[in-house]
Structures are given as C-alpha cells and as structure tokens.
Amino acid sequence: MCIRMLSALAVVSLFLPLCPGQQAGVPALTVENKPELGLEILSAEGAKVSPTEISGLKCTVRNSGHKPVEAFVVVWHVTRGSGAVQIFNHIWDNSLAKGMPKLLPGDSVTVTSGKYRSTPENPFRGVTAQVDYVRYTDGTSTGPNAAKLALMLDDRRMAAGWLRSYLLKVYNERGLEALLEELRPSR
Hints:
The protein is 18% helix and 37% strand. By secondary structure, the protein is of the alpha+beta class.
C-alpha cells in the first residue's frame, strides 16, 4: 500500500501515478494535510484497496493545534476511472456526550470508514484522505466544509440541547415518574 503525504498546496491529479512498489491497477492511497486547520492525518491505510473494492479505510488524526477539538470531519475523495470523484466521510463528534474526552493538543485518534464497491468498467483509481472541518471546544470552527456536514453537526447539537431542556422541564414540573415515562420507548 502506498501512502503519499501531500502538502497543503498540492493538487492531486485524477489519475494518480504509481508509487514505488505499488502494483499496477491498485488505487493509490494519499493524504492531503492542511496545517492551518490544526489537525493532521499522521497515517492512512486500507484493509482492502483494489480497483473494485475499498474497505477498512482508517486514518490516525492528531491535534497539531493549540485548542481542544470537540468535532471534526475526515473526507475520503475517491477517484474513479471515469474521472468522477466521490466524497465519503467520517464524523468524529464528542460534543454531545458530557464527560467524553475531547481531542486535546498533541492527542491522536483513529477514525474508520466503510466499504465501497465499484465495477471493473469504472474502477477506483485513487483515494485521498483529508480533514474537511474542525470545531473547537470554544465554539470556533475552521475548514472548507466541502462535505457540508457543519450544519448537521450544529443541528445535532441544537436537538440535544432542546431535548435536555425539555426533559429537565418535565422533571421539574411533574417529577421523576413523569420523566421516566417520557424516557420509556413508545410501543
């Protein structure tokens, strides 16, 4: 498996050349880091990377900035033989659970992605991993947000806050039994 680290200004061509030792026809797996985001992908690998299947993609992401991170999005740009690029993503979000660890400066976490299939007529040609969006614990954020997931992260946070407020109101106004009734699954 060939992993290329690309600088922030690097442009990935649609048809990636072979890395030393890379088999012909096997998609190249690359990483594009943008230092200004404060997160960097240290390593990326795939359990299976072939022209017709990519599965078990994982990468190790380190907080190289100075602020704790509560959520981020990693995108996998998958290039096909036709030149089309698809974007798959992984969301790491510890903002909703109280007591969950944040990604502190210097800390790393490994994220994974699913399984993707293609046809021999339109094979996978390359995969590039990239941090797309970062939200810090102080509420600020950065990144191109190409996957358009920042709004979804904010919606999840707002929904959780609304639910927390509603359940607290039920408890304060009607007591513990009413709260437990609200939390029981509907039939």
